[in-house]
Design a protein that fits this description.
Radius of gyration: 20 Å
Order of helices and strands: HHHHEEHH
Structural class: mainly alpha
Number of domains: 1
Strand content: 5-15%
Largest sheet: 2 strands, antiparallel
CATH architecture: Orthogonal Bundle
CATH superfamily: Winged helix-like DNA-binding domain superfamily/Winged helix DNA-binding domain
CATH class: Mainly Alpha
Number of helices: 6
CATH topology: Arc Repressor Mutant, subunit A
């Protein structure tokens, strides 16, 4: 009940829940990035941005424009990140055999090794909070989180 003796309306509850959700997601994202970025940089010489580009490529998103769309970052930013990964010999660029107007990105053996090693480091750090949640609740949480992410993408 509110101070005036009325219960909150659905709209009031939703507004409150939205604020709580956004605040908690912001804190969660900042906390994860603050913990993970230094580890990735120290142990693997990459940051989270480069890690996610490697993961896009590893998962079959092999054209810079597709990475730009998937990450919601401008092509120019993606190109700079790709340049860094090529310079470190984690990626190679080649013409796409199906369309010579397009560039195709390929992980090198070293890039694949870095991806695997970074995955292990991230699981060691980020997996810890997930392990605190029962497997059943974790499955529900990850499913709902994926659903919310998809809804925001639309």
């Amino acid at each position: 009940m509110t101070a005036k003796g009325r219960s909150k309306s659905n709209a009031d509850r939703l507004a409150e829940e939205t604020t709580t959700f956004l605040r908690d997601m912001h804190h969660f994202n900042k906390g994860i990035a603050r913990r993970l970025s230094p580890i990735l940089e120290r142990e693997h010489g990459i940051d989270l941005r480069l890690y996610f580009i490697i993961k896009y490529i590893e998962n079959g998103i092999i054209h810079p424009s597709a990475i730009s769309q998937a990450s919601h970052l401008p092509n120019s930013v993606i190109t700079r990140h790709i340049d860094q990964l090529v310079e470190r010999k984690y990626l190679t660029r080649s013409l796409d055999p199906e369309d010579s107007r397009r560039i195709r990105l390929i992980l090198t053996d070293e890039g694949a090794r870095i991806a695997h090693a970074a995955d292990a480091s991230l699981t060691r750090i980020a997996g810890s909070p997930l392990e605190r949640i029962s497997e059943e609740r974790r499955e529900v949480f990850l499913s709902v989180l994926s659903e919310l992410a998809g809804a925001v993408e639309d």
